[in-house]
Amino acid sequence: MPNQFTMNEQLIPLNIVIGDRSYRIRIKPEDEAPVRETVKVINDKVIEFKTHFSGKDMQDYIAMVLVWYATEQSSRTQQGIDNRAVSEKLGQIEALLDKMNG
User: Is 57 left (phi over 0), alpha (psi -120 to 50) or beta?
Assistant: First the structure.
């Protein structure tokens, strides 16, 4: 099986923490700053969701942030997404998560 990366694409190890879990990943050196910024945004959003939606577990918060982040990325390419629609979707997701957690 051929190596996916050439010798010019050396990867560096990076430890990141998302929510309450630590992950060791390997990235290109030029990707370190964007990855760290993304992890910071994600963790800031986890804290924000924990503030607004108390009583959930970390998996719920991370799921909510994942939906938020994917929506944010999509909205950058699709102008005009209404923030209220996003809030309603997140509310629907929260309701589904509440049902799943009994």
Answer: beta
**Pair of tokens at residue 76:** 């950058």
Residue 80, phi then psi, degrees to nearest 5: 90, 15
Residue 62 placed within a domain: yes
For residue 73, being part of any structural domain is answered with yes
Give whole-number Cα distances, 2 to 5, 36, 43, 58, in Å.
Answer: 9, 29, 36, 38
pLDDT, tens digit (0-9, with 9 covering 90-100), for 50-85: 999 887 789 999 999 999 988 887 766 665 556 667
Among candidate residues 33, 27, 5, 2, the one with its CA nearest the CA of residue 14: 27
Q: What is the pLDDT of residue 33?
A: 94
Q: Number of structural domains, the chain?
A: 1
- Residue 88 identity: E
Q: Tokens representing 81?
A: 């997404």
